[in-house]
Amino acid sequence: MDRIPILKMGPFLLVTIQVDLYDRLALNLENDLISMVSKTGARGVLIDISAVNIVDSFMGRILGNIASMSRIMDAETVVVGMQPAVAITLVELGLTLQGVHTALNVEKGMDLLYDRTDLLTTQEDEDNGEDPDDYND
Question: Where is the STAS domain (predicted)?
């Protein structure tokens, strides 16, 4: 059974899709990602689709499902590296990818995940000896 590797990077999960997804592979990715979010307590999921040339409505729905399920489990989802043809196709199909944040590349996607999860602020506060939960003092 084919699987797409899911890497853990600190508080986030990173998925780099290097092949065009067929339905079974996309469903496996959805299940594997949600299981990994649950198992690791990941705060964010970054999906790199820069090698994907074709997206259909099923793939768009899978990305939306991943974002919705991750959000319920307290994790944000960012899709990066979208090719112009893929963006055009998604708009023409009328898919809004609700709950999916997008960024131009992996670096900007990681910045967006840190912004969305407030993890850098929390880490900086802890490094300065401040209690991040004690903002009223």
Answer: 2-113
Note the pTM of the prediction, 2 decimals: 0.83
Could you tell me the end-to-end alpha-carbon distance of the chain, in angstroms, rounded to an integer? 54
List Cβ neighbours of 113 (8 Å cut-off, separation of 6 or more). 12, 43, 44, 46, 76, 78, 119
Identify the bridge partners of residue 46 per DSSP, sorted by sequence position: 14, 78
What does the pLDDT look like over 86-113, one tens digit per residue?
Answer: 999 888 988 888 889 999 999 999 999 9
Q: pLDDT tens digit string along 8-34? A: 999 999 999 988 788 999 999 999 999
Quick one: the chain helix, strand, coil %, rounded to 5?
Answer: 45, 15, 35
- E strand map for the chain: 6-9, 12-16, 44-48, 76-80, 101-103
**CA–CA distance, 10 with 32 (Å, rounded to integer):** 18
Rounded-to-integer distance, Cα 102 and Cα 121, Å: 21
Q: 12, 51, 3, 53: which is closest to 31 by C-alpha?
A: 3
**4: number of Cβ within 10 Å:** 17
